[in-house]
UniProtKB/TrEMBL annotation:
The lineage of its organism: Bacteria, Bacillati, Bacillota, Bacilli, Bacillales. It comes from Paenibacillus glacialis. It comes from the Bacteria. This is Uncharacterized protein.
């Protein structure tokens, strides 16, 4: 899936992460819980989509 972002002069995104989520994004691995990093990445993606105008390109049929 391709997407196009219109930044409109915005240059910051605010995301609330737990300490474990922040550590997981730096490369620390949580062997007992692989969902920590995935959750942090989802939060960042969702915040990015809310902050910026994201247009998803769907393949033409």
């Amino acid at each position: 899936m391709n997407s196009v972002a219109q930044l409109d002069g915005k240059n910051t995104v605010a995301v609330n992460l737990t300490p474990d989520e922040a550590l997981a994004l730096t490369g620390v691995e949580f062997n007992g819980n692989h969902e920590v990093k995935a959750t942090a990445q989802r939060k960042i993606r969702n915040a990015f989509e809310k902050t910026f105008n994201i247009q998803k390109n769907h393949p033409t049929e």
